[in-house]
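Input chain follows. Return structure tokens only.
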Amino acid sequence: MRKLASALEYFLAAIALCQLLIAPPNAAQQPAATPKESFDVISIKQVYPHAERSGGSTTTYGPQSIPCQYQPDRVRCSLTIRSLIEEAFQVDDIEVDAPRFTYDWDYSFAVEATMPTGTSKETARLMLQQALAERFGLKVHWEKRDTPVYALVQGKNGIKIQPNADPDHPKLRQTILPSGKAAGLGLHMGPGEFWDAGTSMDRFAKNLWGLAGLDRPVVDMTGLTGVYTIDLHWAPPQPPSNGYGDPAIISIVEAKLGLRLEKRTLPYNVLVVDHVEEHPTAN
């Protein structure tokens, strides 16, 4: 019996050794589930447009868009819900399928968050993802899609814009705020008016989608890599729509800038927003 027991123990030990030898090389090194990253403190406040009367007419200025600024121990930005999602997941407009309201400047929010000193941008963006999930109820998943788009391309007669001579220091447009103070605006959208002191074609394509109220996103395929000043004026619809959803701008873009739109279909890995609230939970 002792010999039989010894033989059985040897046989079981041999099986265990074989299982260890044929296991995947990194099986013993698989990391534990990554804990959820979150900011130490985060404040999310809605930013509102403001109206200014001049010469008997009223112009509405949308909230100023401020890209996320990463410091060793904090993050600051002021963006639409959609832009916050794009920043958190590092995707472009074309790679996001989200409710239309998320693109609207009426749903802009100023975000200020603190985190441990030395936190990397990558980790801070994971924290932003978590904050969007907690405060806006954001739920997403990924899908591979053939996506209908408008391609922004150079017109047949060539472009009519020139790159900024000093792209690092674009000249801002001075305007008088309701408070009476003068401010230099780098970006302004109003009824029949669009101004951007220094924009890439990629950013202009994203703005054009919202300005014209198009049914599909606009993708920059101009091949232009410079920084440009865009100054456009056109007859706004009546009643004015605060500069949004006006397809008349498409013909203006072709006439003034030498750029046009073409319908195309492009394959994209798309971040689908299954759910997101219009407003965050309270601070």
